[in-house]
């Protein structure tokens, strides 16, 4: 994919149009953008927020926005300290204790939406009107410090010292929660989700996922990059604005460690065989040239769909333009079909599993795991004793029945 990067600088009067200058004084500041032309006519514009966090605009190929963007003229209190991870000696899992997350916004009214473009009444996180915007989370679970210092992030005092260090035994072990957490704003509108986007906008978001996967994978100490979308208050969503997140972990997550163990047990061609097995079975809900969506053979949730590329691809950064183009159509059809099941918005977690940065890339395949606790129009599945405490799942809906319902809903 051909990319062309250039830097532009321009002057912005901070008295117009977004935020007034102190005492209504005329203040002009310089803004620098690093501009990259990505695939399919999408343009990337990188800049900074007032506290130094990275902000990236991704412009649709048919955007009506001007190239100039307003500066972030807010007064800032600085960024929170990097959290600390604690190792659970019983499981080997690392738990990040990020107290700053307690202060994040909780279901604010539309006029105070922190992901909407800034106005004089709403000093939000994004200074300008945008198509798609990505920025570093103000209250991250991981970061802002990294395992090693970079041009825009300090080094942590006690970072993980590689995967062997993280796997070492011992009580009371801690490490700094290095990494990065980013917010991906799908649209400037206050309400919606990925499934409500236009096909063009969906394609821009997919390009952003691919671009950020590549960039975050290159940061020091990052072992895995995870794009996801939480949708619905039943899932715990605290903002109605259409958005997702990207977590960049300093370790390989427990779920991915299980996948690596499955490959070790079943063979390096496991994901290829899964796609072949499901393609020939009764649980396929969508089939396209490059992608296939199916309800997995041993689905845990009342609604659970996996969407995978037909060829081996470890992460979004390795997908082709043709695969990204088709995904925009297939993913929108899938999400809209999930909503058509009961005729209204279905809460879900859309988790894009990607291979780790440094291991398992020839075996672990990029795939979506979309799950919802909705087991009927007015009923939710709650993880009670057996699932929550013992990890022993009991399915409420046979996977074949779920697939039948989803196919019918997608057809509608």
UniProtKB/TrEMBL annotation:
Protein name per UniProt: Galactose-1-phosphate uridylyltransferase
Source organism of the structure: Microbacterium radiodurans
Domain Galactose-1-phosphate uridyl transferase N-terminal: 113-252
Region (Disordered): 141-171
Annotated PROSITE patterns: GAL_P_UDP_TRANSF_I
EC number(s) reported in the record: 2.7.7.12
Sequence ranges of Low complexity compositional bias: 144-156
GO molecular function, one term: zinc ion binding
Pathway(s) served: Carbohydrate metabolism; galactose metabolism
One Pfam family of this chain: GalP_UDP_tr_C
GO CC terms, sorted: cytoplasm
Keywords recorded for this protein, A-Z: Carbohydrate metabolism, Galactose metabolism, Metal-binding, Nucleotidyltransferase, Transferase, Zinc
Keyword check for Transferase: yes
Entry's family note: Belongs to the galactose-1-phosphate uridylyltransferase type 1 family.
